[in-house]
Amino acid sequence: MPFKTKITPYTLIFKRPAGTSRGTYRERKIWILEIFDKNNPEHIGRGECAPLPDLSCDYSAEYEKVLTEFCAEFEKTGKIDFERWRNYSSLLFGFETAILHYESNSYKLWDTPFTCGAKGIDINGLIWMGDYEDMFQQVENKINTGFNCIKIKIGAIGFEDELRLLRYIRTNFTDKDLIIRLDANGSFPAAEALDKLKRLSDFDIHSIEQPIQAGHWDEMAKLCDTSPIPVALDEDLIGINDFSTKKELMKVIHPQYIIIKPSLHGGIFGGNEWIQIAESEHVGWWITSALESNIGLNCISQWCATFDNPLHQGLGTGALYHNNFEFPLHIENGKLWCNFL
Asked: pTM of this prediction?
């Protein structure tokens, strides 16, 4: 198949600043990738390459140059060399999405009850870092719009204020009414982490993502073994792209959960490997988007819907931007819905 490619840089503008322990996002640069048959240029497959600066293993100042090289190889071969490009998660995911779109000739990439509008995906409502009052308002808004699971990013406003916020939430909502997940983004010093986790456990927390910085396998293994709150790995998966190293990480740390983000963790190809390894080790998992536009979110959510995973997924980021792309995705009563009818 004589494919041609086109790359278009695009800047997404956040509706409100998105605060994390690594800083605050106000805009997000992505690259829209299009593949098409040069004999039939109207038959297009579209994907999104969306690395996160200071986080993605494949982000660099030379990103667009590498993407251009990837495109040139694809134009010659018409396929992805997954082994060669294992370390380029966001590029892989962009091409996987574009190929699925091209082959389907539709944004309906899989035929599931989700894509027919018959079944929604339970998701967590994301609470961004801010001051106490701002985070409190976000929590109220999520609960009032039907969410029964929220994920609170912590590590920026002060631990005592975060405890105060959790105490207020649990005064009004039990763990049967509201599931609370926490995301520390590696913000706890290793020496203080267990004590912090013990104090947080008073509030019936479902899980905590990445309590300490990534790369400290032994310390994280000890936490997973002793923490009163189940631990979920996120950043620790970034850059671990070789299958045997993935297995080694899972055996050494053996977390309670892993969180899979295609743009960060090897695309759909790498995500399927992580799921296979997690299930072989009896480790729970769920799928999360990573601030992609609706092009990426559409693919991630449809892929997610091919699994029978009862946990709340992390797929609610599509409404963050002023200038997102129009897709039949919407959130209602704490579920993500899609309907291509």
From this structure: 0.95
